[in-house]
């Protein structure tokens, strides 16, 4: 499952040889993230974010397990138990701020990881399964993060839970029974809080399991690279260890610096003040907004304001889920055989001037109040989002004339055009069109 | 099959979105959203006080926290609870163990308890381990004593409002006469919105979200609270001291956070430089470009 020139695990110490015979766990690690995994030599910093996402998950699981030792999932005391952690538990403030901001860091690196996949065509054959499993992880993360935000039982926890489970109420006929079943009642209460806590504890381990599949599926074709040209021989690769462990070590340092700056000096910057008010079913906050990482999808949900055959709310719910689900079909929507956008002049234009600003604008509007002009702006941006993936991308992949690809990774590296840099300028890449 | 179906789904969503946009635009043009009094006259918190605890090296000023505590005790505590803070926590702002014991036992409201012989509800003097007792037995009692309004708990107030420390300061110093009140653009509130006149039992304050709140101006004049350290007791002084005190009650570990953070960042800078050097060293022979 690896390239034939991959370095072979050869334990020298008798104990390691013994272990290799009985339980070849070191061999597995060696082949997965050690010297036994040959990786293209031209990866740029955008290839750091997978490892960083794994590190973020580890931080979340470790801080989360300790927090769970002090937290009480009961509507009467949940809010105060979080404040107990902040005030009376040794280093409790550190654990809780690390967990809350760690979730944001997890989403930041995962969004950059997805961005990398979209720009460099990592979703294309032969890596479709890697992409699909990645999207499964993303969905599980969203569910986990949403339920985690409910646990402090503040105003935004309660009303966020109410709005999001209310989405299921938009489904015709069976919607309301489903909503009641999900919540264990007619509104979020103790039953909902308890099951959210249970699932919030479970899902990270499911994520870890899917990550194993994600990496397993990745190791069959091997990692992609910025040129999008497949590995042709040993000269194109370097062993993962020490080359990429060293680079990932540096990436981890930068990641932790950003994380520490946020955690220690702006721990509430990404949160909402209303969540420091205990949940009150009788008082609706002026603006109910989810955490920032849901804003683009929240903007799509709220962009549908007019009934058209179906009720507007149902359109919003369908569109919000479709916005994520359509990514599952991306490997088949984009038929271009060229992977990297560095060699796709037309796709690159739509990517930089269409998709990227569109998602940023949706994010901004999702965090803004549901007023004009934000609603109209998010309607335009959401329309572009769907058009980009479902209409523009399939057409572009048909009509586009890609730039000539290098013959191999090594050729690109030696020519100084390793394709390792992101390019926005179409003209400078190849004027020969 | 994926692409034709995708194309139709895409057209569907784009069509409905543009349809929504069309109706939204028509409504926007034919009936532009009317500005509300809150929109036009609500003010963001003032930033005129330089608090000692802002910035990455910020620390609390213990003298200020003790003054703020006195303002809370003599003014705010009559209506507002501080239910997440314990008397013992006061030792962290410079009170001695003995002083804390005295403060607890002399607190105007006693801690709810039971009569040890009959089991009847009773009260007892507080001890340092107790939380600050609430001025009202429950929400109904609080509302009954405050013309239907509920004085919120103040433990987390500076984190439960945007820009909370400055918000508390601005609110306490922001009461003005509504008559003739103008915003920065020079528009007069009661001329632009005659209906926005402050109702019976309410008080006008542009820093409050909907401009009118039930709380009467709590800080009314000089020397309302006598400071033990000789600081001149003016309304802005009392307001900033109590805003600082409430920042401490909301974030008692702020100083730990700042100092641990400094150590962590210095360590990480060192770690990152080392990993950068290791990375460069290992790739030395591969970077032929």
UniProtKB/TrEMBL annotation, chain A:
Gene3D superfamilies: Cytochrome Bc1 Complex, Chain C (1.20.810.10). CDD domains: cytochrome_b_C, Cytochrome_b_N. Signal peptide: none annotated. Binds 2 heme groups non-covalently. Its cofactor is heme b. PROSITE patterns: CYTB_CTER, CYTB_NTER. The keyword Membrane applies. The chain crosses the membrane at residues 45-73, 94-114, 129-151, 163-187, 199-218, 249-266, 308-330, 350-370, 376-396. Keywords: Electron transport, Heme, Iron, Membrane, Metal-binding, Respiratory chain, Transmembrane, Transmembrane helix, Transport. It holds the Pfam family Cytochrom_B_C. It is found in: Membrane. It is a multi-pass membrane protein. Its main location: membrane. Residues 15-227 form the Cytochrome b/b6 N-terminal region profile domain. Residues 230-407 form the Cytochrome b/b6 C-terminal region profile domain. The keyword Transport applies. Belongs to the cytochrome b family. Component of the ubiquinol-cytochrome c reductase complex (complex III or cytochrome b-c1 complex), which is a respiratory chain that generates an electrochemical potential coupled to ATP synthesis. The main subunits of complex b-c1 are: cytochrome b, cytochrome c1 and the Rieske protein. This is Cytochrome b. It comes from Sphingomonas colocasiae.
Automatic annotation (TrEMBL), chain B:
It comes from the Bacteria. The chain crosses the membrane at residues 260-279. InterPro entries: Cyt_c-like_dom, Cyt_c-like_dom_sf, Cyt_c1. It is found in: Membrane. Keywords: Heme, Iron, Membrane, Metal-binding, Transmembrane, Transmembrane helix. Residues 63-172 form the Cytochrome c domain. Signal peptide: none annotated. This is Cytochrome c1.
